[in-house]
Amino acid sequence: MRQAVNDPLPGYWSWAMGRSEPARILRFAAIGGVSTLIYAVLTLAISARHGFGMPVTIASIAGYGAGAVFSYCGHRFVTFMSDGAVGFEIVRFACATALGFLVSVGLAVILTDVAGLPPLVPVAIASILVPVLNFIILRKFVFVAAR
């Protein structure tokens, strides 16, 4: 009989996938972190100053859209483990995403196109501000059936 491999973090994975609020925050941070990374890397990779020559405002739209798709799936199935109505949640998620989108694009327009700052500045600010807003909105407004 084969001996089981010792779990280096006993009980951690079962805790992390549990329904406690600290576990939910950990999962939110992981999903949000990857989503934010998708946004930031894609935006910088295709922007004029760092990549393929696209204006940073347009690059921000593409980056945010890609991050939003990952974010919805990750938060619905992993963070909040929601069994709510998809039609209800996706409309509310779209509203929350639109708000975050407007914040990130607005920052890009104002700070890069108008103020002339490098694209890294609005991307960094959006990468901090939008996740904080998203947790509050997703928890209180979008995935309410997950409670």
UniProtKB/TrEMBL annotation:
<keyword id="KW-1133">Transmembrane helix</keyword>
<dbReference type="Pfam" id="PF04138">
    <property type="entry name" value="GtrA_DPMS_TM"/>
</dbReference>
<feature type="transmembrane region" description="Helical">
    <location>
        <begin position="90"/>
        <end position="111"/>
    </location>
</feature>
<feature type="transmembrane region" description="Helical">
    <location>
        <begin position="52"/>
        <end position="78"/>
    </location>
</feature>
<dbReference type="InterPro" id="IPR007267">
    <property type="entry name" value="GtrA_DPMS_TM"/>
</dbReference>
<protein>
    <submittedName>
        <fullName>GtrA family protein</fullName>
    </submittedName>
</protein>
<feature type="transmembrane region" description="Helical">
    <location>
        <begin position="25"/>
        <end position="46"/>
    </location>
</feature>
<keyword id="KW-0472">Membrane</keyword>
<feature type="domain" description="GtrA/DPMS transmembrane">
    <location>
        <begin position="27"/>
        <end position="143"/>
    </location>
</feature>
<keyword id="KW-0812">Transmembrane</keyword>
<feature type="transmembrane region" description="Helical">
    <location>
        <begin position="117"/>
        <end position="138"/>
    </location>
</feature>
<comment type="similarity">
    <text>Belongs to the GtrA family.</text>
</comment>
<dbReference type="InterPro" id="IPR051401">
    <property type="entry name" value="GtrA_CellWall_Glycosyl"/>
</dbReference>
